[in-house]
């Protein structure tokens, strides 16, 4: 697994995002996915995705814009936001991803005890980092995993997130390796 030097994973904070949060997210992305990371603002605001009835942001159009704006050489883009996200069939989401695509997003707000400021302590920090890694996993074509401790397990609540480890299970690791090889020969 040796991705070309032109390829990196972009981490894109949108709106007010605590800069210190990006440090552990970068470290974990580099550990799990073995691509270099770069922090880059790709969108100035999220107003286009705001739903006034729900007072939340629809994540799907945000992903489409991010994928459009991703620079050449960016293999994936992870947006980090501190606003509440939804998709129409769910009351809220921790994040969303384009399966096998380029863009994904994670929100801190529901993983942060509903506080308006970001709590950089545990378990909040680990929850956010795990869900960021989870969403990126989908862009590498990983689907939800039944193993409760695997990063790709689907979490309905914070307790589920806390039960996950900071690792992919061995099955998801094999699938990720295959996808990495496929991307490297492209
Ligand atoms: Zn998922
Ligand atoms: Zn797994």
Report on the structure:
The protein starts with 7 loop residues before the first strand and ends with a helix. It has helices at 22-33, 59-69, 124-139, 158-163, 170-185; strands at residues 8-13, 37-39, 50-51, 56-58, 74-81, 85-86, 95-97, 103-107. By secondary structure, it is α/β, with parallel strands linked by helices. Residues 1-5 have low confidence and may be disordered. It is 33% helix and 17% strand. Helix 1 links the parallel strand 1 and strand 2 (37-39). It contains five helices and eight strands. The longest helix is centred in the last third of the chain and has 16 residues, at 124-139. The strands form two sheets. It has a five-stranded mixed sheet with strand order 2-1-5-8-7, with helices on both faces. A three-stranded mixed sheet has the order 3-4-6. The protein binds zinc ion (2 copies). One zinc ion is lined by residues 145, 147, 150, 152, 168-169, 171-172.
